[in-house]
Amino acid sequence: MMFCKQHILIAIGPIVMGMSLGTFAMDYYCQEFLAIFRALQVLATISLLFGVLKKEPLHKDKFLVFWLIITAIFFGVMCYYCMNFITDDFLYSFYDFGEFLLALLVLLLLLAATAFLGYLIYYVYEEYARLRTANSESTAVAASERNAVVETKEPPPTYESTGNLTVSIQN
Fold first, then answer.
1. Residue 53: inside a domain
2. How far apart (Å, rounded) are the C-alpha atoms in residues 109 and 100?
3. What stretches pass through the bilayer (predicted)?
4. N or C: which end of the chain has fewer CB within 10 A?
């Protein structure tokens, strides 16, 4: 019960938020560009947590798709930065063995973080797809129930009477 879907979704938001805050360690020339994505990721994480924790699951899928869109953009930024790191820093570190090992470690960490981010996106997308199918099935059932006309013709109840009805009006 510790790893139910709601707890996993609650944990995914701050994990990805922490990964986006880790972009402070990237190069200075990317910081203005990455600041926008950090702010968007904060907004997406708050909306994900709100969507997961709200009582009625009516629009939960819309909160998940908003988080998925923002996080997919962040995933693209991470992939771009991995390629940028390979072409700028990693290829020029072959002259010093210690610098090469450090660059290789950073590259492997970036690739692992990007792969982990991709897995988290996939997990949230599976939950989104499950919600969409559940919502479409429930709306189809609700629509068929709403359109069904049910008429029950029950006879009115009979009351015992003596047959004499006396009405008196007093002024």
1. yes
2. 14
3. 7-29, 35-53, 65-86, 101-125
4. C
Which position has the token pair 């200075």?
28
- Taking the mean position of all CA atoms in its chain, how far away is CA 98? 41
Q: What angle do CA 107, 111, 113 make, to 5 degrees?
A: 115
- The answer as to whether 140 is a domain residue is no
Mean pLDDT by groups of 10 residues along the chain of 171 residues: 76 86 77 86 90 80 88 86 77 75 83 88 88 73 59 74 74 71
Would you mind telling me the total number of residues written for the chain in this entry?
171
**CB neighbour burial string for 19-29, b if at least 16 within 10 angstroms, e if fewer:** bbeebeebeee
In a domain, 23, yes or no: yes
**Number of separate domains in the chain:** 1
d(CA 6, CA 26): 32
